[in-house]
Sequence to fold (181 residues):
Amino acid sequence: LDRRAESEPSECDVLFFGSSSIRMWSTLAEDMAPLKVINRGYGGATLRDIFYNYERVFAHYQPKAIVLFCDNDISGDPNHDVTIAENIDLYRMIFTRLSKEYPDAPRYFLSIKYTESRKGIRHKQQILNEMMQEIAERTGLFTYVDVNSLLLNEDGNPDPKYFLGDRLHITREAYALWAEE
Fold:
């Protein structure tokens, strides 16, 4: 168990975890009020990290619902990326474990967002999102939540008004859209 978990209450309405897009959601508690939420996002998180550190991430918490967003396993880095199939296997292993350990807690997968900084892998992101939606519908392990389409313009490309200067992370306005979804 890490120090961060030890300093937080164990019970919450919703546990958010994943990569920097969760970590940087500075208004999460305000956006989700009156729900009591805990933000366990960290920069650079991959599903491999989350799976390996599962006990450290989850052992302390007793959430009523769980939300996962992690888009770093397929990022366009040939030395770092896993295949779509490996990515899906990692999600499935995490959600299967969550369903066993938190059987009464609904689990949510936030779709991978398209970004200009990762434009070259958009086809992989699209396939992953479609497959995750199908798995959610077929298995009931989690609920698929399409947050990606909220950030796109009429042409289906990321709308710059929802992205920070790095063209990867999202703005306060984008988080407000995610919260509504």
Observations:
- The radius of gyration is 16 Å.
- The first helix runs from residue 3 to 6.
- The mean pLDDT is 93.
